[in-house]
Amino acid sequence: MLDCAIIGGGPAGLTAGLYATRGGLKDVVMFEKGMPGGQITQSSEIENYPGFYQHGKTGMDFMDTWQEQCFAFGLKHRMEEVAAVRREGEHFVLDIPGKESISAKTVIMCTGSTPKRAGVKGENEFFGKGVSTCATCDGFFYRNKEVAVLGGGDTALEEAYYLSNICSKVYVIHRRDTFRAAPSTVDRVQRKENIELITNATVEEIVGDKTGVTGIDIRDAAGNISRLEVPGIFVFVGHNVNNSVLKDSAGNFICDINEQGQVIVDLNMHTSIEGLYAAGDMRINAPKQVVCAAGDGATAALQVISYIQEQA
Ligand code: FAD
Ligand code: NAP
């Protein structure tokens, strides 16, 4: 029986693993379906992680040392996808397709979230080369340049506003003429002089060359296509929380989840089920930043250590 199973090997999972092993837990295993590192490994550069300021270092370079550090302290890693977590009596059982189930006293869920893609031509090809889903992360690369934002929800308009303080101009492209975002946010955006709202419009194609994005083709309501020459487009069309592991065989969640599919936790990252924690992008009100996910992972692991000690 494991002391702690960590599901997901992004910043939250790796940090939880580091704290759990350094904190004296003996049997801690991190399950990661791909390579450890998480979403940030898709980023061409990271410059907002305190203490790490090396121009030109990719997200992959950045995460490389995290793994090394965790494994040096005894974190075990299994490159496997966990299909489901079940509560069985006093402990948890992890279902791993094609493998024997694993029992654990505690589980820290760190499976993150996946920004939705809009499904536009060129979006995948130029992802990380002008197509971004993170204004906090990549906005600065477009300082004093014009950029486009796709979407009409709270995220799109709030991020457009954030970008308007960095970029010379922000074009918001939305497929309808009314916005899903809160009226006060819409009003704030409409009053910002360097934001232009292009409504009833869709992005036909994101175009570029080997340097990255060079423009986007926009289709208006009449079907006319025009090109907007911008070096970047931010796609904010919603997020999918990677929460399917928490569903039972009947499709019901084993712990409390909000309407957006985020796991409800308290300030200790504790879910509504004893011994089950959730950290990083998958939890309610996640700021969706590496530094925050890492902090969550540390908090959850420290709670697990106390919990295991109390149970002993
Ligand atoms: P994730 O990083 O999403 O990691 C979750 C991990 O769980 C993944 O590795 C996944 O493979 C694994 N997993 C999922 N389901 C399972 C399963 N069933 N079984 C096993 N493993 C599973 N933040 C910043 O602070 N600065 C930046 O500059 C920045 N740039 C970004 C650029 C891009 C392109 C993107 C996409 C995001 C960026 N972010 C940035 C956001 C940051 O990457 C996330 O906030 C952070 O990675 C969240 O960490 P996490 O550990 O919660 O989840
Ligand atoms: P969202 O509310 O689902 O909005 C997604 C937006 O993207 C919508 O405007 C949608 O258009 C558009 N869209 C979806 N698919 C598209 C596609 N393929 N092509 C083009 N456009 C597409 O997502 P969100 O903005 O990320 O917000 C998620 C949740 O978090 C919401 O409940 C939101 O209120 C909440 N949130 C709250 C705050 C806050 O309270 N400050 C901040 C951020 C997010 P349609 O409108 O036409 O469907």
Written overview of the protein:
- This protein is of the alpha/beta class.
- The protein has two domains: 2-114 and 239-311, FAD/NAD(P)-binding domain; 131-235, FAD/NAD(P)-binding domain (3-Layer(bba) Sandwich), CATH 3.50.50.60.
- The chain is built from six helices and 17 strands.
- Strands 1, 2, 3, 4, 5, 6 and 17 form a seven-stranded mixed β-sheet that branches. It has a five-stranded parallel β-sheet with strand order 8-15-9-10-11, covered by helices on one side. Strands 12-13-14 form a three-stranded antiparallel β-sheet, with no helix packed on it.
- Strand 9 (146-150), helix 4 and strand 10 form a beta-alpha-beta unit.
- The radius of gyration is 21 Å and the shape is elongated.
- It starts with a strand and ends with a helix.
- The model has no long low-confidence stretch (mean pLDDT 95).
- The structure holds flavin-adenine dinucleotide and NADP nicotinamide-adenine-dinucleotide phosphate.
- NADP nicotinamide-adenine-dinucleotide phosphate binds at residues 118-119, 150-156, 158, 175-176, 180, 236-239, 260.
